[in-house]
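re: that complex we talked abt at group meeting.

here r the seqs, copy pasted straight from the sheet so there may be weird spacing, ignore it
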Amino acid sequence: MTTLYLLSSGPGDIGYFPPLARKALEQAEHLVAYGLYLDLLGDLISNKQRYELPLGEEIERARLALNLAADGKKTALISSGDIGIYAMATLVFELLDNADESAKNPQWQDVIIEVIPGISAIQALASRSGAPIAHDFCTISLSDLLTPWEVIEKRLNAAGDGDFVIAFYNPVSRKRDWQLEKAKQILLNYRPENTPVMLGKNLSRANETITHTTLAKLDIQQVDMLTLVMVGNSESKRIETAQKQWVYTPRGYGKKL
Amino acid sequence: MTTLYLLSSGPGDIGYFPPLARKALEQAEHLVAYGLYLDLLGDLISNKQRYELPLGEEIERARLALNLAADGKKTALISSGDIGIYAMATLVFELLDNADESAKNPQWQDVIIEVIPGISAIQALASRSGAPIAHDFCTISLSDLLTPWEVIEKRLNAAGDGDFVIAFYNPVSRKRDWQLEKAKQILLNYRPENTPVMLGKNLSRANETITHTTLAKLDIQQVDMLTLVMVGNSESKRIETAQKQWVYTPRGYGKKL
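got the structure back, here u go
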């Protein structure tokens, strides 16, 4: 019985890659990932067999990883951020559950799976911005490639109505350019124009930029595929210290100060 | 100008404590935390000055950490999990923003703050369970000590209506025993009785237990202060391999398998 590690590489900086993940990586001899994520791991993977499949070939990556492990090869399937959050882990379980019988390998059943979490973009951006997700928050992917837009729009309204702090994953792509503007307009029905908004680009990587703006001033042109967009709730506040500008969402302790 | 590290110690297992956090800990000479969280760091903190304040003295901990740093002492304020998620980071910013002038130290303004994220309980439980938070999810604290119950109830309905996967932080405490049952009843208005529910107790620590149940069968007696409760959305599915039972939430790729 061979182990398939579903391994999170974190937002980018190798400083976020914990000992437990390092240990899993040492065990694995075969690494399956989008190439960029492997590059970020640098020297840690110099003696490994690499299988780099491009963006768009997610199902193929999951299938390859399962097949390698089923063949008795110690394998790690790697995603950036947290592999459990909008990433590859779920595809492995979907394949185990739903693949056509013809495409299924009966030995997949015996693969030992170990999922290793990592720092997701929402946490990296939160840590740079102050403490915006200190109270109830949600994540919403704005990609309607696999989720009908009506479902996304319902969630936007629910998140607005529930006054959750929101992190938007997949806010735009080359082919999707209107969803974030629509999300902004929906949220303006629920939150003040000056609600804090933070844009985090290339988080923990070279050329990281953090931009503070407001919901009304959020300019879709500032956002690209590598940007995480975070919108405060109605309680989120801005403050400035000598160091820089911060945003925090109070837990309600204020009255006791 | 002295740095105050707002440092996350992760769910418990020191294997989740990444190099960047270790480096911050090496820099800090004064550590402020609830005692248990310091114990989990073991040998890493053997030569440090420890300031252990009990549960309930959160504001005092944040104030002490700010005061130490303002006095030129290299200080780390430490929370388990992610210090930005239902934890101490936001209290530091609340104090900077809102403390009575009489209780404020003008030198707080010059403290350099560095927030270091960590693995939160939701990620630890997700990784043990499979891939339940692979699509849109939210977190809700069921503690009504600092948030009015009406706000929490509104969020429960919003999360139900929006079909978010939900993680409940602070599900019960010695003094709070009815909120989780109420939350369950609200969600049953939106989700099937057999919706997967996972309970994670002592995550990544000795005596970790993961319990799989359903929304209808969720027994509040199984939940204590150290338990994270996760409720799947209407799409979340259970599967079993030779190894164990898993829950995953599909991203919608199913149709392409």
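couple things i noticed - The domain at 3-119 of chain A is CATH 3.40.1010.10 (Cobalt-precorrin-4 Transmethylase; domain 1). Chain A is about 25% helix and 25% strand.
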